[in-house]
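Threonylcarbamoyl-AMP synthase
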Amino acid sequence: MAFSLENGQVSVENKAGLVRPATEAHAEEAIQALKTGKVIAVPTDTLYGFACDACSSEAVNRIYEIKGRKHTSPLAICVGDVSDINRFAVTDHLPHGLLDSLLPGPVTVVLSRGESSNLEKSLNPGLESIGVRVPDSNFVRVIARGLESALALTSANLTGQPSSVSVKDFENLWERCACVYDGGVLPSGRAGSTVVDLTRLGKFKILRPGSAKEETIAILEKHSLVEEPAAG
């Protein structure tokens, strides 16, 4: 079925044509879209996300526009491998092997950006820290490696709306993306990643429980990190 809608809406046929399977056969297409400043939708190991080149201020602005999100709300980044993290954030204060124990997985580690970070200053201006993900999701990691940069990554939904565990959950936003990559229904239950602040030597603070809080705390304590008390 194909029909045109008024008010600038995309036809049903064209809208469905934006969706591709999230397989390595489509990875090169995704990489090229990212290199030209486009926003794509991808599955991770927790939720569906909008992704773009974290070093393209134009693409980052487009993500904020799609989500209806204030620029004061920071974006996380995603890289292909744990070994890439030190290009964008400070890691030398962390115990040996800690990041490899946490990642890849459903965890966002918050680290200091540092003076040598390759990130554009326009990404999360005014913030000295950055959330970093290495999802346990092969498709996202392949395109991050191919981009040879970091992806800016945020949940594929309008700000304030439920997170997406299938492409149908954000069908109203497909037309705002260059492509939507379908990895099926994700099993996270909309919890999202566990967010942990690792900016302080020997300390950690859970900023969002997410889907892997207990496992994350166990790994951090095994590496002799101490949980900071909650504020107040």
